[in-house]
Amino acid sequence: MESLAKAGPLNLSNLIKQHYHHTKLSCIISNPFVSWAVDAALENGIPCAMLWIQPCSLYAIYYRFYKLNQFPTTLISNMIIELPGLPLLHTEDLPSFLLPSNSFGGVFKLLSDMFETIKKYKWVLANSFFELEKEAIESMTELCPIRPVGPLVPPLLLDQHQSLDVSIEMKKPDETSLDWLNKQRPHSVIYVSFGSLAVLSAKTMEAIATALKNAKHPFLWVVKTAGQLPLGFEEETKTQGRIIPWSLQTKVLAHPSIACFITHCGWNSMLEALVAGVPMIAYPQWSDQPTNAKLVVDVFKVGLKLKPGPNGVISNEDIEECITQMLSGPEFEGFKKNAAVLKQAACEAVTSGGSSERNIRLFVNEIARRS
């Protein structure tokens, strides 16, 4: 990121001058982690919008941390933080980059730089929707407004025509898993995926494997390499589940056989599950994921959170208990109902007259008036 920050501004400025000499750009939309892009845009007389790619709740947390100093000087374990528009947060619920244990100093600086330049952006857009994060969004209205224009997910999840799908897969997915899902009963399959970056310990992998085997439910588990699995597990469970290296996740989540999703709570995966109406078992790792998991449990009320023991490792018993609670416990119907309500709200947000559609129209109209 450091080399990109050095070379990026000049290269972007040159790109604008070389390719858009006669046709003026009306707006540049940039990722929040390339804060130098806004300076390159303004130098060329082009307004810039940021597309925030985490929950609006995280935007509110970071803004108050970096701009308003509404946090204790030192964050310690079990501390409670109260912020407008958000549930009560414990230290463990905060994004990992704000904690003393954070080992990614470069990311802390990236976030600091971004919020130093935040007022230079003409608009801050977000991959979320108003009905999902109403309180957090409204808490920022007088500070630095954020306009949700999402959910930015493939059309399949929004009950839209597939011809609108322009998504690109990071890796080659296993398409045969969909045939396998077609053979499973409705709301019976446990889907497990921890994204492209998370690396789980051998003990954690063993705990998940044991829990899935003992749960007696069919499962679909995304595992990058089979060598990460306990010896003999795949053979022992070949009639119960499928192990695949990568999935067509939106199609999997939209499949009627899926009962719940064990996830790391990366925002893209979490938003896809919310729009698909799938309850979640949260096992966050780092970055925004601990806060996202808090939202799943206490704000959206569509799931449970796995909590590591004193040794930092989850037990198979705890996973099994979460699976039981998720699929047949007293909160089971509530999770399903809340997930269905959010799915409906997501679809309505992007239809004509919906909250996100209105924000997009407002954004485009403002650009048009400036052109």
UniProtKB/TrEMBL annotation:
CDD domains: GT1_Gtf-like
Keyword Cell inner membrane listed: no
Entry keyword set: Glycosyltransferase, Transferase
Residues forming coiled coils: none
An example Gene Ontology molecular-function term: quercetin 7-O-glucosyltransferase activity
Keyword Glycosyltransferase set for record: yes
InterPro entries for the chain: UDP_glucos_trans, UDP_glycos_trans_CS
Superkingdom of this protein's organism: Eukaryota
Family as reported in the entry's similarity comment: Belongs to the UDP-glycosyltransferase family.
Name of protein: UDP-glycosyltransferases domain-containing protein
